[in-house]
Amino acid sequence: DFMQASWDIEEVQAKGIQHLASFVKDKSAFPCLLKCTEVITCAMKTHIDSPELHVAGCTLLLEILSQALEQGVMVDLDECVASCLLHTVRKHSENEEFLSSLCTLLMMVSASEVAAENLRKVGVIPDLLSILRRFLHNDEICFSCCAVLWSLAVSENNGDQAVLESAVPVTSAVLQQHLQNGVVAESACSALWALSLQGCVTDSDCEPTAALLLDALRMNPERAVLVKNASLALASLVRLSETAALAILLDSKGSGIELIKDQYHLHFDEPGVAEALCLLINEMAQYDEVMLDMRSQKMEKLLSEIKLQFPFS
Questions:
Q1: For residue 181, which of 141, 236, 152 has the smallest C-alpha distance?
Q2: Which ranges form a coiled coil (predicted)?
């Protein structure tokens, strides 16, 4: 109430945020802090020229949302809050360190379907892509932005086809840059899966995108979630175009079929991985030429193994 009565006085907002922050460690205060997210973001938007207030507000929101995620509480931030966060991102578009925190905050916010939809409505995607292009070297920013892209692209009521299509080359650049960083590569593979699921990968991009996903599998074979998401992304690409299926068969760095077999044997006790690989194999089998090649490489033997391992799935 104190903050809302004096929106125009920066010192009141700063002191209010500072005082709210003192309750963060008090678990009993958490339900009340959850109700303060809009007040905090509005203070940040009202005093757009105060970097100190923005840092304090962002830090407090991160604390509140971290606790919410730990407790399994989904925070459905409204369109006004989403708009405030986007204003803050734009105001600090050159500040790499602060953007890193802001992008982490956006990632936490986008875990809620309602909040993700509100971020999409206020037009956050072009800003995310701009941040990625500028800070491609920053693994924290790349990880967070790709996670947000996944949350936004995976939504079925998406009206941003052209915008999402422009996200494909940027996300591919992230994956190319961070192939050896399993955490970032996993996030980029998830984003590419969501984008390919929405049909955002053009026919000319299918082959290079498939080759890149195969590279991600080769570089991070131990990461089950990455293997699953990269396989699902490949399945979506193959559904879009036979070119992607042929790219898997004829990959210059080695047989894609052998890679699929290796991934299954490495994660034979992971039903999610097995299911994703089966989906990929099924999509590839829709093309006669590809199916003949898979048969010659004894793919039936692998499918029999999977069937024995998961008889009730």
A1: 141
A2: none
Q: In the Cβ-directed half-sphere of 49, how many Cα atoms lie within 13 Å?
A: 2
- Buried/exposed code over 184-209 (b: 16+ C-beta within 10 A; e: otherwise): bbbbbbbbbbbbbbbebbeeebbbeb
Amino acid identity of residue 194, one-letter, is: A
pTM comes to 0.89
pLDDT in tens, 143-202: 999 999 999 988 756 567 888 899 999 999 999 999 999 999 999 999 999 999 998 999
Cα angle vertex 89, ends 85, 94, to 5°? 165
**String of DSSP letters for 125-162:** HHHHHHHHHHTTT-HHHHHHHHHHHHHHHT-SS---HH
